[in-house]
Write a structure and sequence with these properties.
alpha+beta; 2 domains
């Protein structure tokens, strides 16, 4: 069975479109790093951070990287891919640490991103 040039072109275009859609959906769940308002609130093993997000926010997550001498906390937020105003909305995320924080400092992972270092919450 021989496939015409037009059908090949449609198959390739469809595959490219599916790849772009899948890539965009995956990107939406990764989110962008957001600096959080300092200090983080710690009670026992529970760590809570507050940050300012968008009214159009679709979701967020809190990544925690515990080390022996510090804890890196990074907020990731994503929003609907539509136009939205820049009205800030406060959000709160909570994580449970493996061990009590003790004397370990909490470091904002978003503040390691060069273009976010000028944010007030990173200074």
């Amino acid at each position: 069975m021989r496939i015409s040039t037009r059908r090949w072109a449609l198959l390739i275009a469809g595959a490219v479109l599916l790849t772009l859609i899948a890539g965009r959906l995956i990107d939406l769940t990764r989110g962008e790093p957001k600096p959080f308002v300092k200090p983080a609130v710690v009670q026992g093993r529970n760590l809570q951070v507050h940050y300012i997000g968008s009214r159009c926010q679709e979701g967020s997550r809190l990544d925690v990287d515990e080390r022996a001498d510090h804890v890196v906390v990074t907020v990731y937020a994503w929003r609907y891919p539509t136009g939205c105003d820049d009205v800030g909305v406060p959000y709160t995320l909570t994580a449970t640490l493996s061990d009590d924080l003790g004397n370990r400092p909490v470091i904002d992972g978003a503040c390691a991103v060069p273009e976010l270092q000028q944010y007030t919450d990173c200074l």
